[in-house]
Amino acid sequence: MRFATPLIAGALLAALFNAPAPSLAQAPAAQPAAPSVPRPTLDAVRARGHLECGVHLGLPGFSFADNTGNWTGIDVDLCRAIAAAIFGDATKVRYTPTSVQQRWAVLTSNQVDLLSRNSTITFSRDVTLGLDFVGINFYEGQTFIVRRASGVNSVRQMDGATICVAAGSTEERQVQDYFQENNMRLTVINFQRNEDAVAAYDAERCDAYTAGLGALAGQRQRLRAPDQHVILQETISNDPQGPVVRQGDAHWGDLVRWVLNGMIAAEAFGITSQNVEQQRASSRNAEVRRMLGAEGNFGQMLGLSNDWLFNAIKQVGNYGESFERTVGMQSPLRLERGRNQLWLRGGILFTPPFQ
Amino acid sequence: MSTQTTSPARPPAVRLRALGWVRANLLATPLSAAVTLLCLWLLWQTVPGLIGWAVIDARWSGTTREACQGATGACWVFVRAWFDQFVYGFYPVDQRWRVDVAGIVFALFAAVLLWPGFPRKRVVGVVAAVAFPPACIVLLLGGWFGLPVVETRLWGGMMLTAFMAVYAGLIAVPLGILLALGRQGRLPLIRTVSVILIEFWRGVPILTVIFLASFILPLIVPAGVTVDQLARAVIALGLVIAAYMAEVVRGGLQTLPPGQAEAARALGLNYWKTTLLIVLPQALRVSIPGLVNEFIALIKNTSLVLIISLFDLLGVAHRAKSDPQWAGQGLEAYVFAGGVFWLVCFALSRYSLGLERRLGVGKR
Amino acid sequence: MSKRTGLSRYLFDRRVLDAVTQVAVVGGLCALIWYFVSNASDQLVRGGIASGFDFLWRSSGVDVPVKLIPHANASSYANLLLVGVLNTLLVSAIGIVIATVLGFAIGIARLSRNWLLARLCGAFIEFVRNIPLLFFVLAWYFVIVNMLPPLRQSLSPGAGIFLNNRGLYIPWPDQPSRFLAVPAAFLAGAVVFWLVRRWAAARRARTGRGFPVGTVGGILMLGLPLAAALGAGAASVWDVPVRGGFNFRGGIVLIPEFVAIVVALATYTAGFIAEIVRGGILAVSKGQIEAAQALGLKHGEILRLIVVPQAMRAIVPPLTSQYLNLIKNSSFGAFIAFPETVSVFLGSTLTQTGQAIEIAAITLAIYLAISLAVSALMNWYNRFVAIPTR
């Protein structure tokens, strides 16, 4: 898969993870008003009065708390959008920062309702950990950050390098696989805490620190002299990342997936937080009208009010707005959209139709 | 500190006495003289450099990294900039008075309880053990009486260290006493259970217990029940230290002549009365120094919660060192945190030694 | 308690009460455990989380920088675990040796008649004992990684030795097994020493004549291994580290993670051992020493024949618990990326497989087994030093 073009891989993955969509499309036909679908997680969230969202301990651009405890980031935005869809209020979220090691346990033991924590979707995680990955909100690709002075500008030049990595991450395995495949030698120093791996790299304990392209852009902000480091632009893996829910509550998985799809679709239809009211009032596109609750009762089918996506987009924005604000050009990370561009504009970000 | 200075042969004048002392204690034999020289050389190599780094060449005033530009010594400005973090962690600035209040009340209780011979100690002790802990949690956590909630993940620094040490101690002492009584009791099943529990907790590293508490505890409580991260760490610390404290209390129980309990029995007291009125007061009196030592170990072990991303005093130092705004600093943060730990633990160990001596005098 | 008649007499019967109490406590504990287990299995089943020990044989995909047995990223989790356990044992063994030597030296020096030396050792003990071990681990690691020069500016004291913040690079013999001659020589020396000592004791009992047992022992147990080491070194072809690309090639490297954890463990534990040694020596009653002096024994003889044997009796039990502490504390390596048991198993393996309960059980069992084994070993040794008549 590593050598497949990103486009094909992404399209495959998009198809894979949106596979349940047809069943949802049939749902209205089978049971028009479906109050009997068990919705344990949504009920619990409603009863609690807020959404519990598991996030990263602190990765600028993805999930990061400033000194006042205010969370921002693209993963955080997804939590806010879901809270807005449920409560009509994007602030009704509580964030639980989780380490690489803790994240699955925190989710499976019901301490959070979902993980939105730049976690890569993998086969064994999906199959053995009791998790469901319900979408992709960031196409990440693993690469390396190296010191500018080292003169390295390609992964292939790193034979014999010492690499700092967070223990238990997908990167820990991928970097080994990649070096082995290419007959290169490496020494991996596996840190329990991501921050320690970054700090050790900064102290020149390692020649490189490896993580996703986006994550590295975030971590670079924490180095002593960010501009003396280069992030290699070639990626050695394809790491689609997205929200994770517990297995066993299909409805909740649908809800999270369609809020995310809604944000992506909103960008495709040009719905922004600025024009969402006007779009609901006057759009003549049936799909837009259904999304925003001007037509049909899509919200109710999910057990929400019909203005669910309207609230999410009004308060959080569409995917593009969120991207630019948190990791894109308007943020310190200054990431290109790249593969995270809409399928309409050369990226692989895709959403099934709201029908 | 027990000194074993051999008294020199009483010289007549003061100056001679000093000289005699030097001769007897520093230059007694050629070997001793060589050792003295070696020690002096070692001190000469380290102490001036250390003082230079920590005091003379250090930068004390200023607020930013620029204040330390070109300094060859320590940059204490860095520690000052992080000072609030060292004390409160991320505790919200406008709520920090709550930590201050809790700290002052705690310090008052501690002072009274550690003061030998303070009147009405028992009453204060009961208040400190029964009323203070829940009141303190309410104050720090909030949610009642209009206090805004401050989630435990925002706690940090010294307040977190103190909180964990105190509350784990509150779990460990009663549990330790129970385990020790169980192990020393005559009921074979309970004895077996106590032995297994004690040896199990003593046989595994505290780090693994803390690590596991963060994974296993959520799994074994009913689904949907969440146990706070900090609470998990405190429970883990408390359980392990309880086992160590149980062994100390057992030592105390063993010093009691069996006649004491037998006499109480003969007077018609039942097991609990015998234990509570006769055995425990005496056994605990003997055990207090050992318990204080275990408490010191507990304080030191609180820093292990760094592995589950709680930042106690040492954790804050660890985090401070990777603050990009203070690039190149870091040792200062460790030195500061280590220094605070040292002061607290050293004071406590002195206190325990003093107690031991006083108790020893009474006993022998 | 009222008059004990009828039912109440039966109720207050001690045996009945005892039985009821025990059943209640044990039953309560069992119920609690059952409750926990049922909750856990409930969560596992409902969550569709895999369980069982099959994961041990799956490929781990993790490689580590320190390993005593072959391991590659294709090796199984079980192999990774074994690597971790061996690293725990390695660090513990080295730590125990250094801590014991250092601890005994400092503990004895603490009692020196030289005031300055005694005070310096006292200061060291008080310094080390009152600071968390984690401080030393993190601080040593910080000092090594941040204060030693980076790779490009490696310090080189010569002889193919290089020091930088990636570690200490030293030449390595082509056949390290040659150096097995060193422990062999030590053992041989010890056996000969033991025979000589028996012979000397017998001769002393027969004729009253002394024999410089200590000196001979020193020559045998230090000189023989030293000679063996020199011989093995001369016979070996040395693989000398050379700078290449990102790193040094050849030789072996003591990585900072390893050095930091060993040094921190050894110095910290030495502080505690020193205090135990001091206490043990002070516990030997003055009268014994005075009596020995009155008998005309020399200073060295008093130490060897009177003080040390008695002090050891007081030293060995607490020393055992310090050794156990050191082994358990080697888990602190997890904080600085040293691949010991906790790090590779509770860290990497747990995160990748998510099988918390199985991994918890294995980890705890391993530490318990190590603890029990060391306790047994030290108890066995303790029987030698304990007073035989009791």
Structure characteristics:
heterotrimer, A: 355 residues, alpha/beta, D-Maltodextrin-Binding Protein, domain 2, 15 helices, 14 strands, 39% helix, globular, disordered N terminus, B: 364 residues, mainly alpha, MetI-like fold, 2 domains, 71% helix
Which structural class fits the helix and strand makeup of chain C? alpha+beta
Count of all domains of chain C: 2
CATH architecture descriptor text of the largest domain in chain B: Orthogonal Bundle
Overall outline of chain B: globular
- Relative strand content of chain C: 5-15%
Mean pLDDT of chain C: 85
Number of beta strands of chain C: 8
CATH topology (fold) name of the largest domain in chain B: MetI-like fold
Q: What kind of assembly state do the chains in view correspond to? A: heterotrimer
Topology, please?
The complex is a heterotrimer of chains A (about 350), B (about 375) and C (about 400).
Chain A: H1 6-17, H2 21-30, H3 40-48, E1 51-56, E2 64-65, E3 71-72, H4 74-87, E4 93-98, H5 103-108, E5 114-115, H6 123-128, E6 131-133, E7 138-140, E8 142-147, E9 161-166, H7 170-181, E10 186-191, H8 194-202, E11 208-212, H9 213-220, E12 229-231, E13 239-241, E14 244-246, H10 250-268, H11 276-282, H12 286-291, H13 298-301, H14 308-315, H15 319-326
Parallel strand pairs in A: 1-4, 1-5, 9-10, 9-11
Antiparallel strand pairs in A: 2-3, 6-14, 7-13, 8-11, 8-12
Helix pairs in contact in A: 4-10, 4-14, 10-14
Chain B: H1 14-25, H2 30-56, H3 76-81, H4 83-88, H5 96-114, H6 121-130, H7 132-141, H8 157-184, H9 188-203, H10 206-220, H11 229-255, H12 258-266, H13 271-301, H14 313-320, H15 331-363
Helix pairs in contact in B: 5-6, 5-7, 8-9, 8-11, 8-13, 8-14, 9-11, 10-11, 11-13, 12-13, 13-15, 14-15
Chain C: H1 6-11, H2 14-47, H3 77-110, H4 115-129, H5 133-147, E1 155-158, E2 161-164, E3 167-170, E4 172-173, H6 181-207, H7 213-235, E5 238-239, E6 242-244, E7 247-249, E8 252-254, H8 256-283, H9 286-294, H10 299-329, H11 341-353, H12 356-385
Antiparallel strand pairs in C: 1-2, 2-3, 3-8, 4-5, 6-7
Helix pairs in contact in C: 3-4, 3-8, 3-11, 4-8, 5-8, 6-7, 8-10, 9-10, 10-12, 11-12
